[in-house]
Amino acid sequence: MEKSRHIIIREEAVISIQGLYKSFGDLQVLKGIDFTLFKGENVAVLGKSGTGKSVLIKIIIGLLKPDRGTVNVLGQEVDQLERRELDTLRLRIGFSFQSSALYDSMSVYQNLAFPLTMNVKNLSQAAVGMAVEEVLEAVGLKNKIHEMPSDLSGGQRKRIGIARTLILKPEIMLYDEPTSGLDPITSAEIIDLINKVQQQYNTSSVIITHDLTCAKNTGDRIAILLEGRFLKIGTFDEVFATDDKQVKGFFNYNFIQ
Fold first, then answer.
1. What is the pLDDT of residues 16-55, one digit of tens each?
2. CA-CA distance, 1 to 9, in Å (whole number)?
3. Rounded distance, CA 153 to CA 159, Å?
């Protein structure tokens, strides 16, 4: 489960967020977020439920507009894009849903082929088949190509969900609670897969999680989101080498309770 060394290009930001605020009525969710994701980097955003993690992701992909602040993704100001430009940008971003979000009426092959045939025109059936087999090989489930989602375990569904995002070869991966609801062994397999994707596909990733083991083993940096602000950002050792009770609370909740 230990991370391999890889190249992070700190001169090139793929996501740059400055002064981000977002409220819903009287409820302030994000209260001045500054955040940078560098090319080739994994950042694990750690926080409890209701701290704004999902809102942050939705703003990054343009599903929500910020009240204030700038959100630059792959060189483009997200909230300034027209619908067609936003759709084009989203093709460069892979989103791994917490629920895997597979179509239950489609086989594994059909689930993986669907985004490819919808977004890449004039592909032959042979080319589609090769692309499906490639991503299934990457997630270690080539033998499940003709299975239905209902025949898969929770961990296998997560893997297929990740494979479906990889088929368009995204530059950025966004993982929403990738280990939620999984047993420790399957969680370790998903953690290894996230690191493998980073290496093999040269992705930059934001990993939304409340699982400190996942954060520690996938994140090149850890960002603790608390009450709408980043409390601390740095390597695992930098973040947790502190007497701050709020930071220690995350550590104790995960490793002592």
1. 999 999 999 999 999 999 999 999 999 999 987 777 888 9
2. 23
3. 10
